[in-house]
Amino acid sequence: MKQQLQRTLPNAQEVRIVGGTYPTPPARALAAKACSTAFLASLGVALAGQQLVFLPPTVLNFIAQQRGMLIGAGFLLNMVGGALGQTGAFEVSLDGELIFSKLQAGAVPTVAEIRRIVLQKTLLDKYGDSSAASS
Questions:
Q1: If both were cysteines, with which of 80, 85, 92, 104 could 32 make a disulfide (CB 3.0 to 4.6 Å apart)?
Q2: Mean pLDDT in each 10-residue stretch from start to end of the chain (135 residues)?
Q3: Which residue range(s) make up the domain with 109?
Q4: Do 77 and 104 lie in a common domain?
């Protein structure tokens, strides 16, 4: 999107386009990290469970019988952790003013929409008023 905007905006040299990530809330980031750690632990236990001789025999027996369930639960935890780490945010600011937010609009804008908004806020606001005042 950044490259398309830089190619199509007539005032692209006047507009600095910068992309970045929207921060995940700390509680969600912690839960995502815990899910990721549990994923690795479940895979380790499922794949190397019989070598963990310090575990009681009942636990080793459970691991041997439920290996598929442990691996499946691990991959499920990995997907949940990935979903928790994503904010789904996409925001566009111009001179510190929020001009588009996916969180508020509920949809990702097209390049044409962003281009129209940026042109309106830069060129039309700057030159549109002066041409109307001189008439």
A1: 85
A2: 73 70 88 95 88 88 91 95 87 80 81 83 64 47
A3: 89-130
A4: no
